[in-house]
C-alpha cells in the first residue's frame, strides 16, 4: 500500500514537471513573438529580408575584419565564430547599429546589407 502511494507521488511530480516545461515553452514563444512585433521598424525590415552570404562576407571584410579578424577569429574585437549560437539575430542587429560597445563604432547599414551581414555571421 505504501509503495503504491510513493509511485503515485512520483507520477504526479513527473506530470507537474512536464506541465511546467510546456508552460515555460509557451511563455518563451510568446515573449519572442512580442519582442519581434515591438522591435523597431529597421529590425523588422532586416528580419524580413533574405540575406546573401557572399555580399555579407564583403561587408564584413570592409567594415569588421580589421578588428574581428578576416575570418571572425578575433583580434582587437572578440571572436565572432559561432556568434549566432550566443546572440539572437535581434541582439546582433542592435549590437552592430548601437555603437554602445566602444571601441566598436556605430554602423548603420541598409536593411539589406544588415540581412547579408547576419547571413554571413551565421555562417562563421
The class by helix and strand makeup works out as mainly alpha
Please give the share of residues in helix.
55-70%
Q: Can you tell me the CATH architecture of the largest domain? A: Orthogonal Bundle
Low-confidence stretches: none
The CATH homologous superfamily of the largest domain is termed Cytochrome c-like domain
CATH top-level class of the largest domain: Mainly Alpha
Q: How many separate helices?
A: 7
Give the percentage of residues in beta strands.
Answer: under 5%
Mean pLDDT: 87
Question: What is the CATH topology descriptor of the largest domain?
Answer: Cytochrome Bc1 Complex, Chain D, domain 2
Q: What is the helix/strand order?
A: HHHHHHH
**What would you report as the Rg, rounded to the nearest angstrom?**
21 Å
Biggest sheet record: none
Q: Kindly report how far apart the N and C termini lie.
A: 59 Å
Shape: elongated
Overall domain count: 2
Number of strands: 0
